[in-house]
Design a protein that fits this description.
heterodimer; A: alpha/beta; six-stranded mixed beta sheet; four-stranded antiparallel beta sheet; 26% strand; B: mainly alpha
C-alpha cells in the first residue's frame, strides 16, 4: 500500500507538487496522468525515496520514505523515466547485478532472471550490451530490473514509451497478470493505457490533484473519451 | 559492506568493458617510463633507486587521476543511472565507497604494472627495497587522495569536462600548497599560523617523505583523513544534488 500524505515539493520558488494526498491499495493499478511538467515524475521520485518532499510524508507498506528509505526501496520495483541503464553492461550481467543488490539468494537468482527473461522476451538479448539494444528492448530491460525481485509495489514511469504496438500489448498483459497481489502506479501520457490496464486513475495538473477515482468513471466523465476529460480537467486548473 | 562490494565489482568490470582502461594504463606506463628515463636522468645518475620514477608521480596523477574520476558521478547524473542506483536498497555512502574503491583499484593496477622498473633497478644495482616499498605506498595513497577529490568534484556537475578541469585545479592547489610560491602569497594577508596550516595540507610534502622511505604515521593519517574528508563531502553532495 502507498499512502501519500499532504506532500509538497518545490524547486527554488516553484511549487511542483502542492499538498498532494493519495492512497493506492493492494491490487490496485493506478494510472497517474497529467500534462508535461505537472509533477508526475517528481511524485514518483518522492515515492521511491530518490528525492525528499519539502512537506508531508509518504508511507510505503507502512514505512516512511523519510524515516525508513531503505525498507521502502526494498519493497519497490522502479522503472525511472527513460529507463536509464549501464550501456556497457551485457543484459545478463546487468540482471545479475540487480539480483545481487536486491539480495536475491544465489539459489534463486537463476529462477528470477529466467522469469523476467521469459516475461519480457529477452532470451536473445542476454549476451548483448544494453547500449546496442533498440529503444524497446532497453525499456524491457528496465522493466525486467524493476520486477526481478517480485516486489509488491511497482512504480513505472512511462513503461510502454518507445515500444511497438505488439510490445505494448505484451507489457500491458504482463502488468495485468502480476497486478493481483501488487500495488502499481503507472505514469503515462498514453491515455488508452488507463482503460487497458488501470483500475483507477489520478490526474495531476500544476502540482494539484484534479481527479482521483476509477478509470471507468473517468471515461464516463468524458462521455467515452479520455482525451476530452483529460483536456477539460487539466486546462481548468 | 556487502553492497560496497557489489558496486565495486560492477564499477571495476566497467573499466575493462571498453578500451578506455587499456588506453589509460598504456599512457600511464609510457609517460612514467619516459619521464623517468629522459627527464629524471635515470641512467646518468648512476644510483640504484627509483627516486626519478616516483618524483614525477604527483604531476602524472594531477592529470591522469582526474581523467579517471571525472566520470564517476558526472556520468551517472548525465545518463540518469543515478536514479536507478540510488533507488535500489543501498545507502549513498555504499555507492560512493564502491565507486571510489573500484577506481582506486584500477589506478593501483596501473601502478603495479610499473614493476619492471623495480626489477630493472634491482638488476642494475642493490637498491633499498624498503624505500621503494614506502614510495609505492606513498604513490598509492596520493592517488587515493587525488581520486577522492576528483570523485567529490565529479558529483557537482553532469559535465565530465568541467569535472576534469575543476579536479585538476583543486588537486593542483593541494599539490602546491606547500611550495614557497603559494605560501608567500598567503603570508601577505594571512596570519602565520594559518599559513602553517596551508603548508601542512600539501600533498607534495607528505608524499616527499614517503618517497624517501620515511613512513611517518602523520603522513599516513594525513592521506587517510584527506580521503575520508573528501568522500564525506562527496556523499553529502550526491544526496543534495541527486534530484537536480
Amino acid at each position: 500500500m502507498i499512502e501519500i500524505k499532504e506532500v509538497s515539493k518545490k524547486y527554488d520558488s516553484q511549487i511542483v507538487v502542492n499538498n498532494l494526498s493519495l492512497k493506492v491499495s493492494k491490487g490496485e493499478v493506478l494510472g497517474f496522468l497529467g500534462p508535461n511538467g505537472a509533477g508526475k515524475t517528481t511524485t514518483m521520485k518522492m515515492i521511491t525515496g530518490f528525492i525528499n518532499p519539502n512537506a508531508g510524508d509518504i508511507l510505503v507498506n507502512n514505512y516512511s520514505v523519510l524515516k525508513n528509505p531503505l525498507e521502502v526501496k526494498k519493497s519497490i520495483g522502479y522503472l525511472p523515466e527513460g529507463a536509464p541503464h549501464y550501456g556497457e553492461m551485457k543484459t545478463g550481467d546487468f540482471l545479475k547485478f540487480i539480483s545481487k543488490i536486491r539480495n536475491i539468494s544465489k539459489e534463486k537468482t537463476n529462477d528470477a532472471i529466467n522469469y523476467v527473461i521469459e516475461a519480457l522476451s529477452l532470451e536473445t538479448m542476454l549476451e548483448k550490451r544494453i547500449e546496442h539494444l533498440s529503444k524497446g528492448f532497453k525499456r524491457r530491460v528496465g522493466l525486467a530490473q524493476a520486477i526481478i525481485h517480485n516486489p509488491n509495489i511497482l512504480i513505472l514511469d512511462e513503461p510502454t514509451d518507445g515500444l511497438d504496438p505488439n510490445q505494448k500489448h505484451e507489457v500491458r498483459n504482463l502488468i495485468k497478470k502480476i497486478s493481483k497481489d501488487k500495488t502499481i502506479i503507472i505514469s503515462t501520457h498514453i491515455l488508452e493505457e488507463v482503460g487497458a490496464v488501470c483500475s483507477n486513475a489520478s490526474i495531476i495538473a500544476n502540482g494539484n490533484l484534479v481527479y482521483h477515482d476509477s478509470a471507468v468513471n473517468l471515461k464516463k466523465l468524458g462521455k467515452g473519451s479520455y482525451d476530452e476529460v483529460f483536456r477539460k480537467l487539466t486546462t481548468e486548473q | 559492506m556487502k553492497n560496497v562490494g557489489i558496486i565495486f565489482e560492477r564499477e571495476f568490470k566497467s573499466y575493462f568493458a571498453t578500451p578506455i582502461a587499456y588506453v589509460f594504463i598504456v599512457i600511464f606506463l609510457i609517460l612514467s617510463g619516459a619521464l623517468t628515463f629522459y627527464m629524471g636522468n635515470f641512467f646518468e645518475r648512476e644510483q640504484a633507486d627509483l627516486l626519478p620514477f616516483f618524483s614525477f608521480h604527483p604531476w602524472l596523477y594531477l592529470f591522469l587521476v582526474p581523467a579517471v574520476s571525472m566520470k564517476l558521478w558526472a556520468e551517472e547524473r548525465k545518463s540518469g543511472t543515478i536514479e536507478l542506483i540510488l533507488t535500489l536498497p543501498i545507502k549513498t555512502s555504499e555507492a560512493v565507497l564502491g565507486k571510489f574503491f573500484a577506481a582506486w583499484a584500477f589506478i593501483s593496477i596501473s601502478l603495479l604494472l610499473t614493476f619492471p622498473m623495480w626489477i630493472t633497478v634491482n638488476y642494475l644495482g642493490n637498491p633499498d627495497n624498503g624505500i621503494i616499498f614506502s614510495a609505492y605506498l606513498g604513490s598509492l595513497l596520493m592517488a587515493g587522495g587525488f581520486l577522492a577529490i576528483g570523485s567529490c568534484v565529479s558529483s557537482f556537475t553532469q559535465n565530465q569536462v568541467i569535472a576534469f578541469i575543476l579536479s585538476v585545479v583543486v588537486c593542483f592547489v593541494f599539490l602546491m600548497s606547500g611550495t614557497n610560491l603559494v605560501l608567500d602569497f598567503f603570508s601577505m594577508f594571512l596570519h602565520q599560523s594559518l599559513v602553517d596550516i596551508i603548508s601542512s595540507l600539501s600533498i607534495l610534502s607528505h608524499f616527499s617523505s614517503l618517497s624517501k622511505g620515511i613512513i611517518d604515521i602523520r603522513d599516513l593519517i594525513y592521506y587517510v583523513a584527506l580521503i575520508l574528508l573528501w568522500l564525506y563531502v562527496n556523499i553529502e553532495i550526491v544526496n543534495i544534488k541527486k534530484g537536480e
